[in-house]
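Lab notebook, bench 4. The sequencing result for the construct came back, and we need a structural model before the next group meeting so we can plan mutations. Quick request posted to the team channel:

Model the 3D structure of this chain.
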Amino acid sequence: MAEKTKSYDQVLVLMSTTNIDRVTTIQRVANKTGKTVIHDILLSNVLRLVTQKIPNALNSKKVQVFLPSFIYLLKDKPEYQQYIEPYKKKMKNTGKILHRSKFIMNVRISMIRDIEKLKLKSKVLNKCCLIYSLWEGYKEDEEYKQFLSKIAELGIDIISLHTSGHADYLALQQVIDITCPDVVIPIHTENKNGIKQYTDKAVILEDGEIYQVEERKKKYDKA
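Done. Here's the predicted structure in token form:
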């Protein structure tokens, strides 16, 4: 990624917000190419909850925060304050970074209006590329088609560069053997019954089905 983006001043990375490995990649690319890292507000909160080992807006002066427009519209609602308040000081500096610095920033398809505004109104994304770091199959989805079409229309180069982070069955078997779980619930799969080959503790749920864990939690709390 560093090699393919070194000639660009602005790099957008279309990725899963929960792909922590890709966040690390972005940081390393920034270090190699002299770019500032910008996390959107959702990724910033994911990192705050999951890990403090990766440089983020709260523990590093080198990381900035971007507030997407659709989140900005919700900023005054009380339930969103806890996710926005910790980053208010950082967000004040982001505008300057966008205009004056080379940067690399994660994006999602819901941020297309922000990208369009940065390109056409703010005149920021003048030497920009977008790294497509997702499963290739998503390109057949209508929303992704529209997003990528708009990116191309804006004159932003698109570079497909992705390594899957999904575990194979051997890795799942190793996790099961090490953790000895009481229950195994497969998610995000086209073959949820396949897990039964590797454990007799499998519970297969349909989309939207609820699995009750409160009683089990009480038992362990007492222990």
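The chain has two domains: 2-160, 169-222.
Will bring this to the meeting.
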